[in-house]
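Service request form, structural biology core

Requester: graduate student, group of Dr. S.
Request type: structure prediction, single chain
Budget code: on file
Notes: please return the result as structure tokens.

Sequence provided:
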Amino acid sequence: MSQVKQHYINLYKEYHSSAEGRYPGNSFGNGYSHISELIEQTSAKRVLDYGCGKGTQYTKLQLHKKWNIGMPVLYDPGVPAFEKLPTGPFDGIYSTDVMEHIPESVIPSIFSWIFANATKFVFLGICTRPAIAVLPNGENAHCTVKSIDWWKDKIEQHNVNKVYTHLKCYGDSNGYKVLNWLAKS
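Core staff response, request fulfilled:
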């Protein structure tokens, strides 16, 4: 693991542990309806929430119950209960309000992993403005604030399997893009 990646994981572990209510899993609303549609459209059964926070969207709110697929696999390297990167493949991988928290130099390896482990769909909900939150070292929690076109280009570079992908950006560069529809329809 790169030193940069480990540095940020350590910052997020500290940030998560410093207050019970931080990153509980409440940013899921930024893509819930789209993720629900993708699960239905693709008949996905095994899905991964990449960057699930503390997972309260499932453990308390039970948002996954409408999907009729059981509990999603949960991954968040900043939360001890979910810090182990799971083994794929997955029918679908989704991530909401996560990618902007990952250093730009680490994005290629993350995208390569995601697109190598998703077989039916990927959904990425990404904020495109600085965060309100500040990390323990004083940095803004959103370390990779880029336009929707920048994110689309990164997806296209790393989505070598042409996985059906939805990109939703909100903040200073809003938009919704569907990539590789024909590849999976």
